[in-house]
Amino acid sequence: MDFRTVILTVLVTAGFTANQVAQAVDAAAADEFKKTVQPVLEEYCYDCHGDGENRGGVALDAFNSSTNFVEGRDVWWRVLKNLRAGLMPPAKKAQPSKEQKELIVQWIKHSVFLADPLNPDPGRVTIRRLNRVEYQNTIRDLIGVDFDAQGEFPPDDTGHGFDNIGDVLTMSPMLLEKYMVAAEEIIAQAVPVVDRVPPEQVIPGAQFQNGADGGNKNFGPRSLSYYSPAFVTNTFSARLAGQYQLNVDLMVNEKYVDDVFDYNKCLLIFRVDGKELLKKDFSWEGGKPYHFNYDQDWAAGDHQLDFELRPLTPGLEQTRTLSLQITGVTVRGPMAKENWVKPKNYARFFPKDVPETVADRREYAQELLGDFARRAFRRPVDNQTPDRLADLAESVYEQPGKTFEAGVAEAMVAVLASPRFIFREESAEPASGQPYALVDEFALASRLSYFLWSSMPDEELFQQAAAGTLRENLSAQVARMLADKRAVALEKNFVGQWLQARDIETVPIEARSVLAREQKFDPQQEAMRKRFRELNDKTVELTQAEKDELASLRTTLFRSRRQPRADLTPELRRAMQQETEDVFDYILREDRSLLELLDSDYTFVNERLARHYGITNVVGQEMRRVTLPPDSPRGGILTEGTVLAVTSNPTRTSPVKRGVFILDNILGTPPLPPPPNIPPLEDALKGLTNRAPTLRESLAVHRENVLCASCHDRMDPLGLALENFNAMGMWRDQEFGQPIDPSGKLVTGEEFSNIKDLKRALVKNHAEDFYRTLTQKLLTYALGRGLDYYDVETVDQIVARIEKSGGKPSALLAGIIESAPFQKTRVSSPATAEINLKPDQIVGAAGGTTKERL
Fold first, then answer.
1. How far is residue 774 from each of residues 108, 778, 837, measured CA to CA in Å?
2. Residue from 633, 650, 613 nearest 517 by CA
3. Is 819 within 8 Å of 356 (Cβ atoms)?
4. Average pLDDT over residues 274-280
5. Given a cut of 80, is residue 356 above it in pLDDT?
6. Maximum distance among all Cα pairs of the chain, rounded to whole angstroms
7. What is the pLDDT of residue 2?
8. Where in the chain are the domains?
């Protein structure tokens, strides 16, 4: 127990008033500072941050009372971070002992941050809107519809590195309108509005065979190349004679090769029982869908459906990869009503027959809609909500020509358009006069499910919350949830953003330029490239002479149409992303040391990725764990293709970006943003014409500027250690004919000769920094808010738990889920007023309250 808690306990026991207690504690904090903290600061810090010096705008001798201790929390938070990271005092200065550092740390936590180890502050909570991923997954689990939220909604803003942060998940009128439209589309797609429909069967395109394909149990589309004749067929067996409808769905696809047009064409013929129904020419129309409908009078028995493709331009150059995709053929019928059946998913939404009487129908509507609202709002609803929803349903199905099912569907639209669905509403348990209270078990269930699944709670979590047993069964529920396939969301959404793995899908990399740096330097070629960039990047209108020069340079520099020896194809990018996710998933599920994220003797690859990395004896497209040779530089997240590519420029590596990545995501000490108008790194040695400067040389010149050196001394050695990996993640020994030097020295003093040495140094000397950084990142993701000074105690307790376990992921997850910020909320304070707002008040200003919508 710290000294503030001891004093507080003694004074309260003695009967002091609250004001007297506060004054006594503040006096004790000031006295503690003067006696034990200030002498250490005077000895090691005041030469730069005291006695008239205030480097970085920090003068520590300005703090001398409990009042300005608290007012200067931001400054002391910086002091705490720099002290722990070994950045202050600088390595060349005299260093306080470990005990002295810990003394300052504890004083900051307990006297400045007023942290209570026995009852940490859970922090503020901003009511959170579902982001696109959460909305899409919730719709999937609630309705059973694969809604494309990525395509239908605008991108979510990010804060603190993640897109699930409540403070930035704003609600614009445009987004609100999109939610309304989405609710109607989702319900229309999922919920039947009649009780009987003609039978329907979908034949996936992949089930159209050419005789050499084998069986017909495949699913998905079938692609036919524009450039080769093809004939595929399928036989449909009609059980009954009658009228049928055929819906043919096609799509024109392309694989991008270069910025050129492909003039090839093909002819597609669709026949039924030998009769030609479709005969159409197709040209280059990437991603365009086509739909064709045909009525057929069929006898019972087998009917043959054929697709034939004929190339129309066999002698024309192929500059892209064009294909015609048979998405599928839907056969609907017989159309006679006596043959109709229950619609797909009818029993999911209407498990009982619709009653005949008015009263019974209303009661059934209340039952259906009350349960739907409970699951959609992720907590029990009051008695009025089913009544209002039943009123809405009744107002529809009582209209002439409308069905009971249509009325219920309309009420379901209102539920999905409600702010109680779009926002994550929370309630707290009774606080008994305490400043913090446990969130209720329904809120806890949602916090768990959106943390681990990025989706709503399932029925078991709801049942546990309703019984009040979720907290006592927390460990078992977490284990169950991690074993569920929905837990893949944790690695995709957390790892995808923490390590930027999902950015690999779109990061621009120019393979030719990257690989050209591994060739001998050609001054003439480099001069042409520089001139090409100057003309290509000009913002003003080019003269005719400049246009001609640009065209000539483009022809000279890019005349070769041959593919480079390596490229980041979509397949390779997906494998890289899967590698990063699989490594994290393996460590998490096997409960291995988190330090294996920094350095390990294994990784996950398939044949394509292994070949890219130079790893042998891997065959097949399936990702698998491979043990690396003892001399391999691979192993750990820093040498994975995702990290290496997303921290590069389009044409070359970027030691600065890579160094910043390590400082921010591994060591937790991100540098300040760069000042404006920084010249390109290539200009650092622009007078050098006989050879290309190495990036190490360019950065050394850049660091001669004192203002730049303070940050680059930290970033550059880390980034340069990865220079043997090019911008596509491939190993190289030289750049422009010069050997690469990956050696360096950390700002904390450790020297290394290559990336393997650096990884070992991080594991040996900076494990605690990594544990703390990973804890901060995952806690930010779990809470949906940025961390503040009042979270330091919580983070420290989780880090201590991880260290005690030997670095186990289970300790990290349990520490977060059992922490005060995850389990509790502030009862009432101006800083947390956001959580007390009713969702209908938020949306009401944009067009009606929840009651009006329902």
1. 22, 6, 32
2. 650
3. no
4. 96
5. yes
6. 100
7. 52
8. 3-112, 200-339, 346-424, 495-509+568-765, 511-559
Q: What angle do CA 387, 390, 395 make, to 5 degrees?
A: 130
Q: Which amino acid is at 84?
A: R
Q: Tally the C-alpha atoms within 13 A of residue 71's C-alpha that lie toward its C-beta.
A: 8
Average pLDDT over residues 759-787: 97
DSSP state string for 686-709: TT--SSPPPHHHHHHHHTTSHHHH
Instruction: At 513, list the tokens.
Output: 């330029």
For CA atoms 112, 118, 124, 128, the dihedral sign is positive
**CB neighbour burial string for 796-806, b if at least 16 within 10 angstroms, e if fewer:** bbbbebbeebe
Host H or E run for residue 128: strand 128-129
Of 132, 157, 163, the residue nearest 147 (C-alpha): 132
Is the pLDDT assigned to residue 320 strictly greater than 80?
Answer: no
Kindly report whether the peptide bond that precedes residue 629 is cis, defined as omega within 30 degrees of 0: no
Average pLDDT for 542-569 = 78
Phi and psi at residue 124, to the nearest 5°: -85, 160
Neighbours of 753 (CB within 10 A): 12
Q: Mean pLDDT lowest for which of 25-39, 324-338, 696-710, 808-822?
A: 696-710
Give yes or no for a contact between 477 and 441, defined as CB atoms under 8 angstroms apart.
no
Task: Compute CA distances 515 → 564, 568, 572, whole Å.
Answer: 8, 12, 17
**pLDDT at position 367:** 96
pLDDT tens digits, one per residue of 372-393? 999 999 999 999 999 999 999 9
CATH tag for 200-339 (out of 2.60.120.10, 2.60.40.10, 1.10.472.10, 2.60.120.260): 2.60.120.260
Is the pTM here over 0.90, yes or no? no
Question: Look-up: residue for tokens 């330029």?
Answer: 513
- Tell me which residue has tokens 């938070």: 77
Nearest Cα neighbor of 640 from 499, 786, 443, 516 is: 499
Cβ(356)–Cβ(331) below 8 Å? no
Q: How far apart are CA 444 and CA 316, in angstroms?
A: 63
Above 60 in pLDDT, residue 463?
A: yes
Q: Does the structure show a pLDDT above 60 at 184?
A: yes
How confident is residue 645, by pLDDT bands cut at 50, 70 and 90? Answer: very high
Query: What is the DSSP secondary structure assignment for residue 36, as one 8-state letter?
Result: I
CA distance 515 to 723: 14
Residue type, 485: K
DSSP conformational letter for 282: E
- Check whether the bond before 173 is cis (ω within 30° of 0): no
In Å, what is the CA distance from 305 to each residue of 203, 208, 833?
10, 8, 64
3-state DSSP assignment of residue 594: helix
